[in-house]
Amino acid sequence: EAQVTQNPRYLITVTGKKLTVTCSQNMNHEYMSWYRQDPGLGLRQIYYSMNVEVTDKGDVPEGYKVSRKEKRNFPLILESPSPNQTSLYFCASINRAGTGELFFGEGSRLTVL
Amino acid sequence: KNEVEQSPQNLTAQEGEFITINCSYSVGISALHWLQQHPGGGIVSLFMLSSGKKKHGRLIATINIQEKHSSLHITASHPRDSAVYICAVDRGAQKLVFGQGTRLTINP
Hints:
Chain A is mainly beta. Chain A has no helices and eleven strands. In chain A, strands 2, 4, 5, 6, 9, 10 and 11 form a seven-stranded mixed beta sheet that branches. A four-stranded antiparallel beta sheet of chain A has the order 1-3-8-7, with no helix packed on it.
């Protein structure tokens, strides 16, 4: 089954404690991206990757890092989380070589105290 | 002004009604996506359009590139269609910009 898998789905942490949200896709898509969703602001792009070792900033990259060492994985790293990073995070991949369809992970709800 | 504007923000209708959700954008795009987000958060892709019209079951999506406008229609609406519908434009350079979403409630 084609899918994008995120972990953890829910996390409560404290300010400054480094965390990583993992994202993995099994469709061999080259393009992957991270978004955060906040009430009243909708979905906003954090980082995206067009291929292995190719990443670029989206609209709200501050406080986040990413890496793309292999095609299937695109982890989101919060080196020193702050309360303003409390949000619902989505990872997605796009079948750019085919239909252009977007595939989203189930979301990771992060709370930073 | 947001690059992508959806209307209405909220829509409540009775089962069986014909539903239209609109999306207007102000930038050049290579494609437009319609997404569905159910309570609980998961997001599902409904359509990807670069021109014309697409149909899938009771859902129809159209786009007018010259007018920078897209519509999502739902025929014979059902309570299970209740969700947030999100328009997203692909600006090229791999950047997506999302509308605020339209919260649709279909009452039995």
